[in-house]
Design a protein that fits this description.
This protein is of the alpha/beta class. It contains 10 helices and 16 strands. The chain has helices at about 40-45, 115-120, 120-135, 150-165, 175-180, 195-200, 215-220, 245-250, 265-285, 300-305, and strands at about 1-5, 15-20, 30-35, 35-40, 65-75, 85-90, 100, 105-110, 140-145, 165-170, 185-190, 205-210, 220-230, 250-255, 290-295, 315-319. The protein has a 6-stranded parallel sheet, with helices on both faces. It has a 5-stranded antiparallel sheet with strand order 7-3-5-6-8. The chain has a 3-stranded mixed sheet with strand order 4-16-15. Strand 9, helix 4 and strand 10 (about 165-170) form a beta-alpha-beta unit. The structure holds NADP nicotinamide-adenine-dinucleotide phosphate.
């Protein structure tokens, strides 16, 4: 198989392209043939040696998600057969044209999505949907999404709007304001986002994708019984906040990570995604957003784009 392989830990200099023997699916696993693969901020952390992937993951091959066509199946796989189109989560190894996945961590790709579109879905939409469930967001609720132009952010804005919430989206790069607004959000800068939420009566749910430094202000902007779900803290994990404000709001702070979940938890997360989000994708009520596609041989440039401000949606590699 062909793969993007990190030769060690460090910067872009450790990114290489190489060949490895095709993996063979074990019991409960399938081998997926991949044409397009999404890259993620966690891949950068893994490359820098700051992200511990679960034991048994392919060495040096990052990638927590997969989309493609089932090539072969191991023993005890009930649902899938060769030729089925699938997408879902893997522990690692997603940045390759052959990927092993647990059969119950996959959902069926609807025929309305081509391979590119399908590749832009799993990590972004599963994370966003799961976070909105944790936030208990309901129709008519007020949702704040920070980092709203990235992979998870664009999915969260669309899912919030599809649910009938009023969505406030934080975007720091004005060039993508119009694109995010078209997804169904009122777009604000990071410095005006929370003031606006307070002006409207407070946020019922906040998805924090940027950093722990914002958590104090997030809590101030929550409505009574509001929920703050912390999904990503790329700018830092240390928070200072007023517990008095948290108490006064009867608010909750909920942390979440997909990858460290047990296999059963992950299967349940994907089942919820398949029953709620996949129909919305099939009907076109939410859509996968692709910022850019790079040949896998140009993975250095793809990672460069991922780290640049002003993306709109996902960065993909093609194999
Ligand atoms: N908990 C989980 O299981 C889980 C799963 C998936 C992702 N995540 C995390 O969630 C976060 C978002 O993931 P993603 O895939 O959406 O990443 P992404 O596509 O790279 O998007 C990142 C978003 O954050 C914004 N951003 C980054 N640094 C910023 C800063 N200093 N100030 C303001 N905005 C900033 C970006 O805006 P610009 O375009 O202006 O840079 C963009 O909107 C990441 O931290 C990721 O690791 C967590």
């Amino acid at each position: 198989m062909r793969a993007v392989i990190f030769t060690g830990t460090g910067g872009p200099e450790v990114i290489t392209v190489g060949e490895r023997p095709d993996p063979i699916p074990k019991a409960g696993q399938v081998l997926v043939a991949v044409a397009f693969a999404g890259i993620n901020p966690a891949d950068v952390l893994q490359r820098e040696g700051r992200y511990q992937v679960p034991a048994g993951s392919p060495v040096g091959i990052a990638g927590p998600e997969v989309a493609g066509t089932v090539l072969s199946i191991g023993p005890e796989v009930g649902r899938w057969k060769p030729g089925d189109r699938v997408f879902g989560l893997v522990n690692a190894g997603g940045l390759a044209d052959r990927v092993i996945a647990s059969s119950d961590h996959l959902a069926a790709v609807p025929p309305e999505l081509d391979d590119r579109a399908a590749a832009a879905v799993p990590e972004a939409f599963i994370t966003a949907h799961d976070a909105l469930r944790k936030a208990g967001l309901k129709k008519g609720g007020r949702l704040v999404v920070t980092g709203a132009n990235g992979g998870v952010g664009t999915a969260a804005v669309q899912l919030g709007a599809a649910l009938g919430a009023y969505v406030l989206a934080g975007v720091r790069t004005a060039a993508v304001n119009g694109s995010v607004a078209e997804l169904g959000a009122e777009v604000l800068t990071p410095s005006t986002l929370l003031e606006r939420a307070i002006q409207l009566g407070g946020a019922d749910a906040i998805l924090e994708l940027i950093g722990a430094a914002y958590i104090g202000a997030d809590i101030e902007a929550l409505a009574p019984n509001g929920r703050l779900v912390v999904v990503g803290v790329p700018t830092g994990a240390d928070a200072a906040f007023s517990v008095h404000t948290l108490m006064a709001r009867r608010a909750s702070i909920i942390g979440t990570v997909l990858r460290s979940r047990t296999n059963l938890e992950k299967a349940a997360t994907i089942e919820a995604f398949e029953s709620v989000v996949v129909p919305l994708l099939a009907e076109g009520r939410v859509r996968p957003l692709i910022d850019s596609i790079f040949p896998h041989t140009d993975a250095v440039a793809a990672f460069g784009r991922l780290s640049q401000a002003g993306k709109f949606g996902k960065v993909l590699l093609s194999f």
